[in-house]
Write a structure and sequence with these properties.
This is Beta-glucosidase. Keywords: Signal. Pfam families: Big_5, Glycoamylase. Residues 54-141 form the SbsA Ig-like domain. This protein folds into 2 domains: 38-141, Immunoglobulin-like; 154-548, Glycosyltransferase, CATH 1.50.10.140. It is an alpha+beta fold. 35% of the residues lie in helices and 15% in strands. The strands form 9 sheets. The chain has a 4-stranded antiparallel β-sheet, with no helix packed on it. It has a 4-stranded mixed β-sheet with strand order 3-10-8-5.
Amino acid sequence: MMNTKSNLVFGAIVLFFACGKSSKSNPDPVIPVSSSFTFSTLKVNGQASGFSYTNVNAKPAIAISFSTPLGQASVTGSVSLATKAGAAAAYSVAFQHHDSTVVITPTGLLPITQYSLKVSTALKSAKGSNLQSALEVQLTTAIDSTAKFPTITDEQLLDLVERQTLKYFYDFGHPTSGLARERNSSGDVVTSGGSGFGIMAIVAGISRGYISYADGLARMQKIVSFLNTKAQKFHGAFPHWLNGATGAIVPFSTQDNGADLVETSYLMQGLITARQYFSSANAAETQLRADINTLWNGVEWDWFRQNDQNALYWHWSPDQGWAINMKITGWNEALIVYVLGASSTTHNIPKTVYDQGWAGSGGIKNGKTFYGVTLPLGPDRGGPLFFEHYSFLGINPTGLTDAYANYETQTKAHAMINYNYCVANPLGNGGYSANCWGLTASDIDGGYTASSPTNDVGVIAPTAAIASLPYTPTQSMAALHFFYYTLGDKLWGQYGFYDAFNLTNPWFANSYLAIDQGPIVVMTENYRSGLLWRLFMSAPEIKTGMKNLGFRGPNL
């Protein structure tokens, strides 16, 4: 047994070692509070698909998860939801997973609209740290398939489309000249080719009773008088653009400041059609026909061979001559130029100019198959659909043949290839379907392009499918239903259908173009009654000229 002294010594030793051990041990480590937190996952309606979502419904649940619980009060000031144009959209907020997930639910998004949901670094965690990197989510809402207008019969719909679209040329025609403005924002700038389309549309409108005969005749007299007395011409040919008040040329480009033979041909196609329509023996109509003949006979088609070459040339400038030097060679929208050149009784061209200049001695032939359809003429996959519209507003392709093609087959094949391409939709463009198709020249968001299966930018132009009614009636009517009933709240306006739209990156034009509105009226009427085909093809010079080029058919 230890005595008291021994106990005291032992206790001192234990105390010494205990104190020494305590003085040498490290304190508990200090864990720093993170200065930021991170994004973890994103789901829209329960699906994760990166940061871009399409066909989104009006009230999607957008769940965004983070690495730590959030400070709820910071969400409203750090999350924004707005359209591409910057219009804010309201939303509600809920929290899940111990506040580490925020669920944003819009109160109601507009259809066919692109929204951007942004989360800024001002978002805070429950502990006060900031989000490390901002987020942005793109949402494109789905089409609202409900009908925007009451259902009417197809005949009533065609009537409505013709009547409404005609207003572009009649109600919106230039007040001084009566000619068609280039587009609805062009002011005094009128288009010679678009005016030719408009003249044909006015004839259709008179025939349908949309315009009285007297008013239609007065408008035609105004147009023809202006063209004869005020409008600038060069060797009988008109420029692309004119000032509708003065008749002075408006340059289309630096070198394109004179004659445009293609635009002139569209104008003459319309004037000849009007001449055939106003056939009464009274003084007013007799004078109108004489004035039209003055314009028609004044075009020096043969001079545009540029020193007797076996081709016609598109442009001529009064100060730069043949600087553009562009041959009019097929297959494209300009067949009408050679038909009119061969039909002229004052300045006609021989068949060899057609065969070598236009047909390239057979070079316009294609013969390959695209999307199950054999294409007789032109570039692979057909090119833009206006190739089969502009010249065929007056030229009736039904049963029409020459050495190079059957033109009924050609026009139908091109339209079907365009349709089949859009149905196949190899680029995955939004909205393309059996009900939504048609690639041609039109406005696009921020510009203009000639859309086709080889230049597909996701833009559909109503004129493409509607003006193809004579070729693809079933497919064109399906598209017309879709444009009017499904998209009508965005696409239908004062002068009919707006020029174009894009459902991939949602955009709807607010523009109207004469060269796109014209074929809608004219080809719809040709589909319904064949009126404009019948009138143009009844002109004796046209019959003779086309026969001289080797054309054969029931309408010659």
